Amino acid sequence: MLIPACLAVGALIGFTGGVLGIGGGLLAIPLLGLVLGMEQQAAQGTALIMVAPAVLLTVRKYNQHDKVDLRAAGAGAAGAMVFTWLGAQVALGIEPVLLRRVYAGFVLCIAMFYFHQSSRKRRKAVRPGGLRRPEDYHSAWFALIGMIAGMTGGIFGVGGSVLVIPILTTMFRLSQTSAQALALTMMIPSTFVALSTYAAHGQADWLIGIPLALGSVLMVPYGVRLAYALPEPRLKLIFACMLLVIMVLLLVKT
């Protein structure tokens, strides 16, 4: 019964990840710890098995709606790869309960930011002329963002794109969907770096991760389609609420 359950849960996570542009790993990690009793590092490594193909498919679907700037994504990916490996080495040496608590704090900070953003957008809409595109900026900026995202993704297994998206929407003034697409694209190589690092240390359960991945891939396209249909403030609010749910799940396990 575990495999059908993983397929069903993977489908739900894949749909959610498609809507929010987070690859689904943020939700999978606390569920693996809470339901299956995995330690934080093992949950992060197993979630990466699901995240890797889901991210590839999500990026493909976003790119069909609006072409991703490969120059910016490539610069970010280059910056992220080495720092992802360093972050994973740090995470593998941290006591699991402490890592889970730090992860919960990280998720709470991002959630509070998005609650603020969704409220501000409702009070004052962004003018169409106020939005920018990645080609308006030098590649070095995206390389720097990639380094920050890579370290975050390495330590927490996932989450690099979650940190990058608010940076791209506020400092760089990209639209929410454009930021989600670019953030996920620049995290593709580092996702596989993180997965290989966790797996090499025995912190990835393939028998659980593969069914999660299969279920996730089936529902990602529908989530991306909904993301482009929703108003941007509502998408930010959904993102924030989902992060709060994740934080509660993490604290319950702790």
UniProtKB/TrEMBL annotation:
Any one cellular component term from GO for this entry? Answer: plasma membrane
Protein name per Swiss-Prot or TrEMBL: Probable membrane transporter protein
Database matches in Pfam families: TauE
Q: How does it sit in the membrane?
A: Multi-pass membrane protein
Ranges annotated as spanning the membrane: 7-36, 42-60, 72-92, 98-115, 141-167, 179-199, 206-228, 234-252
* Statement: the UniProt record of this protein carries the keyword Transmembrane: yes
UniProt KW keywords: Cell membrane, Membrane, Transmembrane, Transmembrane helix
Q: Where in the cell is it found?
A: Cell membrane; Membrane
Family of the protein in this entry: Belongs to the 4-toluene sulfonate uptake permease (TSUP) (TC 2.A.102) family.
Protein's organism: Parapusillimonas granuli
